[in-house]
Amino acid sequence: MDHDDKEVAKRVLGFKQVPFYVVLDKEGDIVQMGSKKHIDFDNIPGVIKDEPAESDTAANNSNGAFEILDLDF
């Protein structure tokens, strides 16, 4: 984006810092927007998460618990 486009986006979407996320549904409507702390990355429409294979879980965790990772998108 050039400077003028950034200024328009800041005015229309109301953000003052980056990164700033905008999540759209399949119709192009905004369903979530904000900084990382405002986005529910586990509840994004249409996103299907892979479930780890049972053998992967057993190999990585002897107690069968999943490891929680903080991913920066």
From TrEMBL:
Q: Which domain of life is it from?
A: Eukaryota
What is this protein's record name? Thioredoxin-like fold domain-containing protein
Q: Which organism is it from?
A: Thalassiosira oceanica
Q: What is the lineage of its organism?
A: Eukaryota, Sar, Stramenopiles, Ochrophyta, Bacillariophyta
